[in-house]
Amino acid sequence: MTNITPFIETRALTHIYNEGASFEKTALDNINLKIEYGECVGIIGHTGSGKSTLIQHLNALLKPTSGQVLVDGLDINADKKALKKIRERIGLVFQYPEHQLFDLTVYKDVSFGPLNMGISKEETDVRVRESLRQVGLSEEFYEKSPFELSGGQKRRAAIAGVLAMRPELLILDEPTAGLDRRGRDEILNHIKALRDEKNRQTIILVTHSMEDIARVTSRLMVMSHGKIVCDGVSAEVFDRKAELLESIGLAVPQIAELARRLREKGVGIPEGVMTSGPAAEALFKLANEKGLI
Amino acid sequence: MIVSKNLCFTYTKPEETSESISFEKYSAALTDININIKQGEFIAILGRNGSGKSTLARQLNALLTPTEGTLWVKGLDTADSDNTWRVRQSLGMVFQNPDNQLIASIVEDDVAFGPENLGIPTEEIRRRVDDTLRTVGMREYALDAPQFLSGGQKQRIAIAGVLAMKPDCIVLDEPTAMLDPSGRREVLETVKALNRGSGITIILITHYMEEAATASRVLVMDGGKLVMDGTPKEIFRRADEMKALGLDVPPVTALANRLIEMGVPVSDSILTVEDFLNDGFIQTLMAGA
After folding, report:
1. Among A216, B49, B52, B268, which has the minimal tally of Cβ within 10 Å of its Cβ?
2. A271 and A198 housed in the same domain
């Protein structure tokens, strides 16, 4: 694999806000990362750790102070004319994307991106239908005003607007923030469904929610003070790097923490248990083996 | 502290759209809300999006007033416009979005704005600003410009601004929705300390069940009605009903409930990791290990 050019790569990426001013702040400090096609990567980090700054570099909304962002081996900031194309390939869903809904109907709102890219009406129609289906909004929503929808529905409509551009990389910044259980479940299930057998959408999921990470991502990057301090398989990071996470103000999912503390007390819960279902199975099995139930 | 009798509310003027009120809220109304909140309580309000939580919060400091029924805050009828300012002085609000709450160009000026408006002497304002910024962990940013802070940091400044007015009660409408775990912890510890130390009544609207688990009382709303009212233990034991309302219980509580269903005799009132580790049956399991 090492010979193949990675899909996304950053080399010594550094970003300094207000450089030279008295309040300059290094938001990204020498970031080197590689993401391959088909990966689903979670990024966590405390407030101000550089997560949002990092993802805004990946589609050239921000330019590096130094270093490079490469997509398929090409520096995305080298050619200004190529930027539009890059932004079509790298779809970024901002925090609270529902604030950006603007058109009269859901259908029109989702059409905006592809039409703006110069896609034909017919092809746009196909894409709008597919992306609304992908986020679970059926035809009855097409002619509704986006402002009639519930919070979770609005957010899904906004995600559909980015999906309709068929980005090769979908970046979601805090997609479940402020949603209730149902809204959160819906969003996460639809994100997971983007990665079915035949279509493995490449995804970066930025979140504060360890439970979201546990449910969706396979790889996890941890950011702190503008650096990537940890990068590995999500379950392993939660099991083995709990102290590191806590030291930088993060927490592992509640069940992963419980499982780790039970292991410390000699209760044999296997590593990688992050949710209540598998934890219940493991504890039931143990209690059974010991003849306690 | 807060009493309501058959409080009903309907949004009646949907044409008067302002940017900060979205359409969905017009369909949410309050129906027959009867609450009695005492000074010093720490209340968590749960409910799905659109269940009426935020509408109720806005009633509490008279941003909205009942269309039927009555709401009293410290004995003052909120519908009487002569009471509005006294109600707002004793009940401070922190909203979801900090960007709509910060007004000054320097952090400490923003925190000082409330007490200045109350006519507090300068030295006392200075002390309050320092204290509250320290309480929310933002002392070192006192001279920074709010626009250069992250969303979470801004929210902590907004909380400091309300704290600086020393209200009897603080209503926080999903104050931690955008904070990281340490930020959430700090904010939660802050409001808990204010509740315990100064006896300030806290009303916390949240989607985080772990936060609700630490409250003294939990109110659950659905479709504009108050549908559950009890201690966290009483509420989270009813996991099936919570699920039907589109709500979670804390992950360890879900685990305990699952184990009970499977016939493993753990306690039915586990709310935290500590509770779980201290459970009698789990202790036996550890001893056997």
Report:
1. B268
2. no
Cβ partners under 8 Å of residue A20, min gap 6: none
Q: Could you report the per-residue pLDDT of B169-194, keeping only the tens digit for each?
A: 999 998 887 777 777 877 888 888 88
Tell me, yes or no, whether A140 lies in a domain.
no
B2-231 CATH choice from 3.40.50.150, 1.20.58.100, 3.40.190.10, 3.40.50.300:
3.40.50.300
Inspect the interface and report whether the beta carbons of A265 and B254 lie closer than 8 Å: no
Please report how many Cα atoms fall inside a 13 Å half-sphere around the Cα of residue A173, on the Cβ side. 20
User: How many domains does chain A contain in total?
Assistant: 2
Put simply, the answer to whether B207 touches A179 (Cβ < 8 Å) is yes
| Residue A292 sits in the same domain as residue A216 | no
Burial of A21 (0-12, 13-18, 19+ CB in 10 A): exposed
Q: Are residues A176 and A277 in the same domain?
A: no
Q: What confidence tens digit (pLDDT) does each residue in B54-96 have? A: 899 999 989 999 999 999 999 999 999 999 988 998 899 998 7
| Out of B50, B184, B286, closest to residue A266 by CB | B286
Chain A residues touching residue B24 (CB < 8 angstroms):
147-151
How confident is the model over A253-278, as a mean pLDDT? 90
Distance from CA of A53 to the nearest CA of B (A): 11
Shared-domain flag, residues A26 and A95: yes
Residues of A in contact with B259 (CB under 8 A): 280, 283-284
Domain match, A215 and A286 both: no
Contact flag B258-A276 (C-beta cutoff 8 Å): yes
CATH number for the domain that contains residue A89: 3.40.50.300
- Any A CB within 8 A of B96 CB: yes
Predicted confidence (pLDDT) per residue in B110-156, tens digit: 999 989 988 899 999 999 999 989 887 889 999 999 887 876 788 78
Chain B stretch 205-244, residues whose beta carbon is closer than 8 A to a beta carbon of chain A = 207, 210
**Which residue, among A144, A283, A284, would best test binding to B if mutated, counting the most B CBs under 10 Å from its CB?**
A283
pLDDT of residue B280: 93
- Rounded Cα distance, A31 and A10, in Å: 6
Mean pLDDT computed over every residue of chain A: 91
What 3-state class would DSSP assign to B39? Answer: coil
Determine which helix (DSSP H) or strand (DSSP E) holds A67, and give its type and residue range.
strand A66-71
Would residue A53 count as lying in a domain?
yes
**Which chain A residue has the Cα nearest residue B263?**
A293
Q: Which domain holds residue A293?
A: 253-293
- HSE-up of residue B176 (Cα within 13 Å, Cβ side): 25
Does residue A158 lie within any of the structural domains? no
Smallest Cβ–Cβ distance between B151 and the set A47, A183, A290 belongs to A47
| Domain positions in chain B | 2-231
Contact B264, A249 (CB under 8 A): no
CA distance, residue A96 to nearest chain B CA (Å)? 10
